[in-house]
């Protein structure tokens, strides 16, 4: 038995080196057991630590690496590989108990895809799940027919090839996950997610050592199995007892005093909005969903909603009297059926590992030109209607219908959207197929200009507030837009717009 597993990418087990290749779960049926949410609360400490019952996980191991998918292409500028979604059985505790996951290539998280701008990409995909599924290339500028939309399901036992060419200006941190209508949340929380890095040969930060941190939730029942969503999860969005990094719970990250590291961070959780901080160290934001910023920005904390990515440069300082580790600070997102986080939680310990010289950080990273005057404006309202269990989450008053077109646009035309959260919860907004620029946000009902330009494909819209953004779609076809709390997406908070050639 090959013990090749780590609870990495956006789902469940990475840091625990226990995934067995080829060891299949006894059952592929969804687990409908419920969890005591009142006992669990929001804390990332496991319920077992608070109540004396339930599972706990090993912790404190070195941060696992994301394992790359091998490139089978023999020609430069091409990437070819194979992904398979299938059940896998994992021994989380190193004993005879096993936990069933759904995984890409028997690995949770899935393999890391390392691509280059301009690559011709071909990925063969096999579905060995009991449900239809797709692969959505989150944030990547791929044609709609290749983007894993709900309209293109791969049935159980089926397969398909994803083929696309990457543009020459799309370097950044992306990820892949399922997007079948009605099954996205379950497939993601059972383990299906993986990271994508698209590299540029003109990268001004290529001299810095990199670390990859993929954040994900794991929610286990008292028997050590992945718990199904209950009514509270469907309302608030799912948050597990364990917030993992690369599948590991509270791992150790090595950092030398004075050393500068480039961290790529993915929030691959279903619904958790995470406010990250490194109080003992120097922290600079250098990138967002769509790649590098124009210049580094000093920050004290970083707010990442589900689906968002960021790049930060961490300089090891180990200031006395401050926690050396990576922490999650409290953030209130308007949950009604779970407790909010009320205190700092440790996500990883940062361990001093010698001393190194501090490498230079360029003052400028790239040019980002603001988009011009829009050719069309729209208002997108995200709302909640808990009186209707069949359609509790809406966009512009409608629940998602995959056979309905909610609007049309034009390829190459600048669009300006005002996205409104007419809701008691925050709703992270995601648009397929392109990156957008946030122009302004409302704070207590007053518009404030965005402080800096960045390319994004997810933006959090706080309860009762608004975000104004602009974008251009470069390719024709149907594009989805939705809340990236996956339980809300599955229950109707999604719509679609058809972009027509000019």
Automatic annotation (TrEMBL):
- Please give the superkingdom of this protein's source: Bacteria
Q: Which UniProt keywords apply?
A: Metal-binding, Oxidoreductase
- Record keywords: Metal-binding included? yes
Concerning SUPFAM superfamilies, the annotation shows: Cupredoxins
Domain Plastocyanin-like span(s) in chain numbering: 98-202, 223-315, 389-497
Q: Does the keyword Ubl conjugation apply?
A: no
Q: Which cellular compartments is it found in?
A: Cell outer membrane
Q: How does it sit in the membrane?
A: Lipid-anchor
Q: What PANTHER family would the database entry show?
A: MULTI-COPPER OXIDASE, MULTICOPPER OXIDASE LPR1
Q: What is this protein called?
A: Multicopper oxidase family protein
- Lineage, opening ranks: Bacteria, Pseudomonadati, Pseudomonadota, Betaproteobacteria, Neisseriales
């Amino acid at each position: 038995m090959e013990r090749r597993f780590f609870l990495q990418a956006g789902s469940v087990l990475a840091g625990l080196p226990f995934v067995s290749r080829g060891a299949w779960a006894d059952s592929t049926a969804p687990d409908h057991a419920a969890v005591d949410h009142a006992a669990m609360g929001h804390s990332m400490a496991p319920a077992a630590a608070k109540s004396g019952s339930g599972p706990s996980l090993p912790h404190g191991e070195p941060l696992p690496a994301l394992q790359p998918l091998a490139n089978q292409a023999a020609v430069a500028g091409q990437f070819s590989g194979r992904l398979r979604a299938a059940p896998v059985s994992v021994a989380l505790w190193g004993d005879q108990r096993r936990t069933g996951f759904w995984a890409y290539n028997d690995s949770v998280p899935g393999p890391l895809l390392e691509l280059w701008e301009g690559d011709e990409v071909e990925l063969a995909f096999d579905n060995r799940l009991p449900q239809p599924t797709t692969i959505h290339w989150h944030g990547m500028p791929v044609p709609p027919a290749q983007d894993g939309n709900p309209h293109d399901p791969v049935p159980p036992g089926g397969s398909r090839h994803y083929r696309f060419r990457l543009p020459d200006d799309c370097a950044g941190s992306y990820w892949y996950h399922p997007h079948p209508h009605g099954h996205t949340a379950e497939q993601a929380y059972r383990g299906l997610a993986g990271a994508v890095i698209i590299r540029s040969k003109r990268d001004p930060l290529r001299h810095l050592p990199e670390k990859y941190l993929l954040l994900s939730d794991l929610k286990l029942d008292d028997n050590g199995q992945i718990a199904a969503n209950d009514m509270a999860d469907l309302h608030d969005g799912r948050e597990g007892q364990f917030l993992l990094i690369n599948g590991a719970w509270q791992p150790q990250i090595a950092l030398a005093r004075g050393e500068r590291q480039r961290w790529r961070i993915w929030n691959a959780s279903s619904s958790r909005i995470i406010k990250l901080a490194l109080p003992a160290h120097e922290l600079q934001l250098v990138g967002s969903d769509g790649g590098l910023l124009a210049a580094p920005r000093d920050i004290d904390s970083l707010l990442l909603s589900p689906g968002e990515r960021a790049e930060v440069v961490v300089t090891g300082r180990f200031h006395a009297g401050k926690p050396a580790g990576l922490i999650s600070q409290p953030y209130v997102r308007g949950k009604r059926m779970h407790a909010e986080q009320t205190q700092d939680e440790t996500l990883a310990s940062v361990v001093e590992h010698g001393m190194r010289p501090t490498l230079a950080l360029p003052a400028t990273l790239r040019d980002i030109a603001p988009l011009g005057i829009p050719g069309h404006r729209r208002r997108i309202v995200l709302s909640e209607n808990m009186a209707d269990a069949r359609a509790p989450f809406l966009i512009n008053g409608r629940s998602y219908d995959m056979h309905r077109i909610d609007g049309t646009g034009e390829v190459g035309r600048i669009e300006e959207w005002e996205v409104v959260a007419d809701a008691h919860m925050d709703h992270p907004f995601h648009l397929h197929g392109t990156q957008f620029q946030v122009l302004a946000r409302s704070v207590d009902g007053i518009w404030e200009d965005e402080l800096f330009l960045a390319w994004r494909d997810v933006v959090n819209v706080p309860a009762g507030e608004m975000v104004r953004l602009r974008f251009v779609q470069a390719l024709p076809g149907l594009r989805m837009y939705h809340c990236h709390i996956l339980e809300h997406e599955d229950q109707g908070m999604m719509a679609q717009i058809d972009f027509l050639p000019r």
